[in-house]
Amino acid sequence: MYFLSILVLFSNIITVIVGIFLLTDRIIRIEAIVHSREKIRTLIDKYALQILLLVSATATLGSLYLSEVRGFAPCRLCWYQRIFMYPVPVLFMTSIYKKTKDVFLYTLPLSMVGLFIAGYHYYLQLNPSPYAPCGDIGFSVSCSENFFTHFGYITIPWMSFSAFAIIASISLLQLKARRTKRD
After folding, report:
1. Residue 154: φ, ψ to 5°
2. For the chain, which domains are there?
3. How many CB atoms lie under 10 A from the CB of residue 114?
4. Which residue would you say has higher pLDDT here, 137 or 183?
5. N or C, which end of the chain is more exposed by having fewer CB within 10 Å?
């Protein structure tokens, strides 16, 4: 569990650094930085499918580990997030096998919905509400229940949010790059 938290922390740091680096391309025009940005984009373009397969498979196997091995019962919102995450590694494996890149058309909506649910779930953990979609209603644990917090902010919904954010971001970048190449 701590290992998963370290992976999330590392991915959060890399995502923020790369995000800032890529988003400042209209502001900072220093030649060395522009060249480095192009290298990062080239790496992301070249390995997008493999990166996202690794992220989505880790998220899927991590959620199964937390529920089936560690015994943390998933709440209703956890199940909804699983619905949107579990098909994603299969889509990426199929895309790698078939050598296609149209998978991003399918993973972007899945990851955006999952991102919204995970964000809402994380919000409920920070601000518990008796009006949450699940509470003490028999078969499910409360959506605001927090099994652990590492590094002051990493919880199970944050892990999910991070994975969905990476998948959505790279899928969006790939779709944008494909559209730019077509035009």
Report:
1. -85, 115
2. 2-182 (1.20.1550.10)
3. 26
4. 183
5. C
